[in-house]
Design a protein that fits this description.
By secondary structure, the chain is an all-alpha fold. Helices cover 73% and strands 0% of the residues.
Length: 289
């Protein structure tokens, strides 16, 4: 028995070392760094306690970024999941060109997000982009979508939904294929409408997948910043700035590592609270069998 435990420990040791070295210890170190000041030249860092957190609460840029991220998450999470489910239901049936449609829906996931951002920048380009050409065709005046504070965040949101919906579709498509065909046949014999079958049978059986995707979409809403570098860089005037991009700016542009660590701790706490809330609220409605 002890030999089995020893073998198990030896097999798990490499993974545990990597997990502790690159996940747990950096997280602990980030919490520690948030309690110290940023070293400047010959001036070493000093212990400041909760001063960085007090600064965070009084930071207007942080409040703006959090509001942006809330809107961004509230739009991208349900929209990506709903679009993914709609696409999965459509390509699940027997239609002409089903394989091509599945590939087309999944293609945005294969492309690097930087490339996706460059494509959409061309769509939003003032005066020459596809959207501007359509506006001019119907007689509307040109508009700088990514340079306007009222529309920049929504332009970034559209790109995220388009990029991740195809990835989520694969999970829904796999889940739909596990639903027994006998259930559909029995419902058809009884004359059950398709919408009723979806609401009473399909949707409850898809809840484990929906829970998994909602957690992933929440994480993506706080960690996806690649396209911001290309599209808006958080502008104009922080109108499209998100929390992780603000952390990057603080830590690597302004070299305020202590404040960046404080922002990182807040982001991790938000993700943990939201993730646990999703599990506790949705787990009662999830049917695992």
């Amino acid at each position: 028995m002890r030999r089995d435990w020893l073998h198990a420990a030896l097999l798990l040791a490499p993974a545990l070392v990597l997990l502790v070295s690159f996940t747990h210890w950096p997280a602990i170190q980030t919490v520690i760094d948030s309690l110290w000041s940023t070293p400047r030249g010959r001036r070493p860092s000093v212990f400041v306690g909760l001063a960085n957190y007090e600064r965070l609460m009084a930071d207007p840029t942080f409040r703006r970024v959090m509001w942006n991220n809330t809107i961004y998450a509230a739009l991208t999470i349900p929209a990506s999941i709903a679009l993914a489910l709609a696409m999965a239901l459509y390509v699940q049936g027997r239609i002409i060109g089903r394989g091509f449609l599945r590939l087309a829906y999944f293609t945005p996931t294969v492309l690097p997000l930087i490339a996706v951002a460059n494509i959409w920048v061309f769509f939003f380009l003032p005066g020459f982009g596809m959207f501007e050409q359509l506006r001019q065709w119907v007689g509307l005046s040109p508009r700088n979508w990514l340079g306007d504070q009222s529309t920049a965040l929504y332009g970034v949101t559209i790109v995220t939904i388009w990029a991740q919906a195809g990835f989520f579709m694969i999970f829904y498509l796999a889940a739909l294929q596990t639903i027994p065909v006998a259930l559909r046949e029995a419902a058809a014999i009884e004359g059950c409408p398709r919408f009723t079958f979806f609401r009473r049978v399909t949707w409850p059986l898809l809840m484990p997948t929906t829970l998994f995707l909602s957690v992933n979409a929440t994480i993506n809403a706080f960690r996806t910043v690649d396209h911001l570098f290309v599209m808006t860089q958080g502008g104009p005037n922080h109108a499209s700035n998100l929390l992780l991009y603000y952390i990057y700016e603080t830590g690597f542009t302004f070299w305020d590592t202590a404040y960046a660590a404080t922002l990182t701790v807040v982001m991790v706490v938000i993700l943990v609270v939201v993730g646990l809330g999703q599990f506790f609220l949705m787990d009662r409605r999830v049917h695992y069998k």
